[in-house]
Amino acid sequence: xxxxxxxxxxxxFSGIALHSxxxxxxxxxxxxxxxxxxxxxxxxxxxxxxxxxxxxxVDVRRGTTIAEGKAVVFTVEHIMSALNAWHVDNCIxxxxxxxxxxxxxxxxxxxxxxxxxxxxxxxxxxxxxTPKQPLYVEGGATKIVLIPGQEKLSISCLASFKGCxxxxxxxxxxxxxxxxxxxxxxxxxxxDYGDLKQLLAMGLCKGGSLDAAAIIHDGAIICKEELRFRDxxxxxxxxxxxGDIYLTGCRxxxxxxxxRPGHPKNVELAGMLLREIAAAQ
Length: 281
Prior knowledge:
Layout: E1 3-7, E2 11-16, E3 23-30, E4 37-41, E5 49-51, E6 57-59, E7 65-68, E8 71-73, H1 77-85, E9 91-95, H2 108-117, E10 119-125, E11 128-129, E12 135-139, E13 142-147, E14 153-159, E15 169-174, H3 177-183, E16 190-192, H4 193-201, E17 214-217, E18 220-222, H5 232-245, E19 251-252, E20 254-259, H6 263-280
Parallel strand pairs: 4-9, 11-19, 14-20, 16-17
Antiparallel strand pairs: 1-10, 2-3, 3-9, 4-5, 6-7, 7-8, 12-13, 13-20, 14-15, 17-18
Helix pairs in contact: 1-2, 1-5, 5-6
């Protein structure tokens, strides 16, 4: 049986947050067995904590936000995605702000941060879960089904954005640490130009730039550097899904088929899984 894992040593990363535009330092610390993933706001009195679970999600607009009491953390999905890829079961994610750095818009900086810290195996058995029956969520253009399976987490994803020069995009991925690094971690955040104008009008994206995202506009993709993948949009969608599904507190196995996924339905699926996990205990 696989064992739980944590980091060998702490590692940190600093940068500008996407929506607030504030500078934040993230420090991921090792934690004992059965701790799970816990976010700690060291900038607030008492250093309040929130566990990274679907039941603590309070907002899914433009990212996944978790909160418990005074501890509120925005856009946790990129960190959670990298932790899932490394099979980190237990750690404390300390932050001196409410939103982690957007970095280059991908999870690659967090993947490398964990790699630098190192992974150590613990004694307790890893918590894995697959549902007894297929689970299905849908809403609008989004449809996601999880088919039970005991071996790995496999994701088949279709993404479609109006005005994107490569549309639709499809990618299949079986979660592994090395495969995630090569195929998924580098996928950057994308935004439609019309949505960007709306976000700016709402006072969001204060820390946004072409260093951190690519813009879809009038049949073109505008970014500072060349696309890392021809189908970079769908790879980022898989990145987000891997992060959101880790809000179950378990290593989920099975086959996910996702059509135009987004945070609202990703988190709804994670919530269904969390309830099934609780019922099975």
